[in-house]
Amino acid sequence: MDTLTRDALTVLQPGFEGTDAPDWLLRRVGEGLASVGLFGRNIASPEQLAALTARLRAERPDVLVAIDEEGGDVTRLEVRTGSSFPGNLALGTVDDTELTRALARELGRRLAACGVNLNWAPSADVNSDPDNPVIGVRSFGADPRLVARHTAAYVEGLQSAGVAACTKHFPGHGDTAVDSHHDMPRIDADLATLHARELVPFRAAVTAGTRAVMSAHILLPALDPALPATLSPTALHGLLRAPVTEGGLGFDGLIVTDGMEMRAIAGTYGIERGSVMALAAGADAICVGGGLADAETVLRLRDALISAVRAGELAEERLADAAERVRALARWTSEAGAAQEGTAPAPEVGLIAARRALRITAAVPYEPQAHPVHVAAFTPVANIAVGDETPWGVGAELARLLPGTTTGTYGSDEAGAERVLRDAADRRVVAVVRDAHRHPWMAKTLDALLAVRPDTVVVEMGLNEAAPVGALHVATHGAARVCGVAAAEVIAGA
Question: Where in this chain does the record put each Glycoside hydrolase family 3 N-terminal domain (predicted)?
Fold first, then answer.
C-alpha cells in the first residue's frame, strides 16, 4: 500500500452496520484505516462491544474506536435502555465540577472497559437560544463561564480514564435555530460576542488538554461569510490552531469534523468535495457513518482525497500532517489506556447526579403517591442526534414503585387532554413533557388537562423554561433513564 493511499484511509472515521465488524472494514483497517465510529446500531451489550473492539484490534492494535456517548439524552452505549448518566444540563444545574469530573471518569472507565478510546464528547456549546432544536439539554447551560468550567472538568475526568475527549461543536452550536443534520445553521453574532460567549468553553477545553475538537457545520458570517466552520481555513487554521498570542486558541490536537453526511454539508457540497475542503481547511479526521456506513463510501472518500492531491486541490503535506495527527492520538490512547487499567468503578455517580439535579416546585403540600397512577407522556419528534430508539420518561420506574401504573403516549392531536382523562379514569395523572416551551401543542394540552385535573403532577424532562405548573412540578433537566428514576422516587416517596 503506497503512502498516499494509506494516509487517505488514515484520516477517515467511518461507521458500519451490524454488531460484528464486516470483512470490508477489517480489510481497510489492515490497509491503514486508523479509526472506526460506533453508533447504537453496533451495540447490543458491553460484552458484545468488547468482543467487537477486540476483533478490530486484532487487525490494528492502536485503532481508534470512537463513539458518540454524551450520556443523558444522547447515548449509544445504553441506546436500548436509556443512560445511567444524566446529561450536561443536569450537571450544569448542580454546578459541582467535582461531580462532573467523577461522572465523566466513570463514563470513560466503562467505555475503556469495552475497548472504546475516543468519545465525541463533551458538548461545549453555550445554549444561548432556548429554542435551539438540537442542543438544549446537551449543553451545560447558557452561562459561558459555567459551561467552560464543566467542559474542562468533563475533559479531565474522561481522559483520566484513558479515553480521549473530542470537545464539540466548534466554534459553538448553541445560538442556532436550525439543526445541521437538516440544513445549514447560521449564527449572526459579531466577533466580540463569539469570543465572549461561544469560544470561552473551547478555550477552557484546550487549557484542560482536550485531545480532539469537533468542528460544526455552521456558518458564522463574522468569521467567514462564505464557508461553514468545518470547511473554513479561517475557523480551523486561523482561529482554532492559531497561537493564543495571535487571538487563536492554540489547539495542537486532532480536529475531527462532524458527520459529513449531514445535510448542511452533503446537501450543499457533497461528501467527497466537502471532505477535501475540510482537510484543506485544517481538519484532520473525516467523520462519516451516522447515515452512510458502507464499504463503497469509504472507497469513494479515499479515492476523492487521492485524486484531490494529484490534481493539486489538496496539498500532500496537509494530508500527511492530518494522518500523523490521527496516529499521534492513537499512540496517546494506547499509552493512556494501559496506564489507567484498574480504575476504581463508581456505579452510583450517575443516579446521585440525577437526584441532585432535580428542581421541585409544589403548588400545594404534596403527599407521595401510594396507589397506581396514569403516566401521560407528551412526546415530541426526537432530533436526529438523540434518536427515537432510546426509551425515556418515568412510566417504567413508577410501574415498579407503584404496581398497576399505566402509561399512554400522546402527540399533537386536538383531543390529547380528553384522551388522557379517559385513559386515566380515577387515577392521578403524571404528565411528562419535554421542552414544553418549544411545543405549543404540548402547553395547550397540558393547560386543558390541568383545568380539569389540577392535582396532576408535571415532570419536565427537557429545558425547564416554561413556568412550573401542576400540583407538583419536577424538573429533571434531561431525559436519561436515571433522571426518570430520580423523578419517580420523588413522586412515589421512595
Answer: 33-327
What CATH number does the domain located at 358-492 have?
3.40.50
Extended strands (E) in 115-246: 118-119, 164-170, 212-215
Terminal Cα-to-Cα distance of the chain (whole angstroms):
62
Task: Tally DSSP H helices, then E strands, for the chain.
Answer: 18, 14
The set of catalytic residues is 181, 258
Rounded Cα distance, 106 and 195, in Å = 32
**What are the extents of the domains in the chain?**
3-339, 358-492
Fold classification of 3-339 is TIM Barrel (3.20.20)
Task: Classify residue 389 as left (phi > 0), alpha (psi -120 to 50) or beta.
Answer: alpha
Q: What does the alpha-carbon distance between residue 52 and residue 55 come to, in Å, rounded to a whole number? A: 5
Please name every residue paired with 457 in a beta bridge, in sequence order, or none if there are none. 430, 472
Strand segments, DSSP code E, in 196-267 are 212-215, 254-257
Contact 6, 32 (CB under 8 A): yes
pLDDT along the chain (494 residues), means of 10: 94 95 96 95 95 97 96 92 96 98 97 97 91 85 97 97 96 69 74 94 98 94 94 96 95 96 87 96 92 84 97 98 98 81 80 98 90 92 61 94 95 83 95 92 93 96 93 96 97 92
d(CA 405, CA 402) in angstroms, rounded, equals 6
Query: How many C-beta atoms surround the C-beta of residue 311 within 10 A?
Result: 9
